[in-house]
Each structure stands twice: as structure tokens, then as C-alpha cells.
Amino acid sequence: MKSVYVETVIEPDGPVPPYLQLAEILAERIERGDLQPNRPIPSESQLVQEFGIARGTVRRAVAVLRERGVVFTVPQRGTYVAPSPAE
């Protein structure tokens, strides 16, 4: 019984690029409420350590989330979960 998508594991040789896998993992955490609006997401260093991926991969994943409007970045402060449109 193998799941197509394992929530906290990045599959480097899978059909989906690692940065998109990470973007989906973070988006799911936001959707579930694990990461709250206007609160910071884990730092690049934390994500690199948690998932064992390169810093550039983390940056690409965050850029995808920023383009989707899921997060916003404040220079010198970090990246935060965007408020939901309903708020």
C-alpha cells in the first residue's frame, strides 16, 4: 500500500521536481492551519535541514508559493503566510 504522495518526504528521483514537492508540502501545512496567517514559515536553514535539500531548492519552492499568493516576504524579516482572502 504505497501512497502516491508522502507528506514530509522529498522524492528526488520522482516525476515532480523537488522544489514543487516542497511547495506542496508547505501549502498543505498552511491549508491545515499548521502555519498560521501573518506568522513566519520555517527559515531556509530549517527547511534545508528538515528535508535534506539544497538551499536553492528551498528558495524556488518559496518563490512558487509567493507567486501563488500563499506567502509574502518582508526584506530582512523573513517569509510569512499570507492572510486568506476571507480575512
Report on the biggest sheet. Answer: 2 strands, antiparallel
Taking strands numbered 1, 2, ... along the chain, how are they ordered across the largest sheet? 1-2
SS strand fraction: 5-15%
Radius of gyration over all CA atoms, rounded: 13 Å
Question: How many β-strand stretches?
Answer: 2
Share of helical residues: 40-55%
How many alpha or pi helices?
3
What structural class results from the helix and strand content? mainly alpha
Report the principal-axis shape. Answer: globular
Q: CA-to-CA gap between the ends? A: 39 Å
The unreliable regions are 1-6
Order of helices and strands: HHHEE
Mean pLDDT value: 90
Task: Give structural attributes.
87 residues; mainly alpha; two-stranded antiparallel ribbon; 3 helices; 2 strands; 41% helix; 9% strand; disordered N terminus
